[in-house]
Amino acid sequence: MKTVYSDTHEAHAYTSEFERGHLTPAREIPARGRLILDAVRARGIGPLSEPAHFGNEPILRVHTAEFVHVLEHAWSRWTAKYGFDLREAIPSVWPGRGMRNIHTEDIEAALGCYGFDTATPIVAGTWTAARAAADIALTAAQFVSRGERAAFALTRPPGHHAASDLYGGYCFLNNAAIAAQYLVDQGRRVALLDVDIHHGNGTQAIFLDRADVLTLSIHGDPERFYPHFSGYVDETGTGAGEGFNMNYPLPLGSGWGTYGQAIEAASERVRAFAPDVLIVPLGVDTHLDDPVGGFRLEGSDFQRLGSALGKLGLPTVFTMEGGYRLDTLGSAVADVLSAFEAA
Ligand code: SP5
Ligand code: ZN
User: Fold this and answer.
1) Mean residue pLDDT across the chain
2) Ligand 2 is a single-atom ion; what residues have CB below 5 A from it?
């Protein structure tokens, strides 16, 4: 399958995120993109393409104009406020219950309004990289729309935690949702099956009230796992979208036994929906000992996953989401994609 990649992501590079009460080394780092690219090349997974430029229009089909504007200008506004020797922009105040969810010209307030965690720093290259990742997802969607069986959007930063006016979880623009909406705008029926260990809260929120896009996510039980505030089984859609969102929260420590059953259940739901295109937000942070994860997939489990997805027999777009264990990241991704192709 074709892989879409750009080295623009390299500029989205920061040193630390804030968690567990202190600054910790960044996990979502440029080396991730390079490692995945190397593995895809080494395994001959497909010709590499640079992304085409789609402009802001398909992004604005999913994200609000004000949100896009804040992201685009966040770094210059942050450095103008706090000084130019800073390494990263991380908000430190949020609109809690009973407070007003508004921002003025103040960038601290803007980031608190639009961001939901302290693990998603903004730096000078963040907007350009996020924008390029959206173009990568759109280019992959265009390949599939023009008749390719599948395409891999090697997106970094990832996207599935980002909602229409919310960033967080290392995500700024929801690459998979932007690709989905682009295909919907071409008359396609789209299902998304999110296999990252974290709930795809952004994708869920974007399509929650819609029956024309099916959103499914398999992830660590939010009762004990990030992002905590969404991903429960009773989130099944609102209004016309009732029944078109499904969550499969699994206990931490889950291995292929439990995980494979969820894949089967979600696959059945995909078949019943009968989409024209499947989008798979692909996270391999399900791997045993992933530093941000908590599941125990390993070895041939990623081939099993790719094979199960391939057997759905649908035109498929993969977007890259999480995966932070650097020694296995590339091979886990390549295992999913090559088993998909062989299925
Ligand atoms: C795309 C994606 O995989 N985003 C994941 C973002 C999770 N980041 C914050 C995790 C903070 C939890 N800290 C607990 C660490 C215990 N080892
Ligand atoms: Zn994840």
Assistant:
1) 97
2) 196, 198, 283, 285, 322
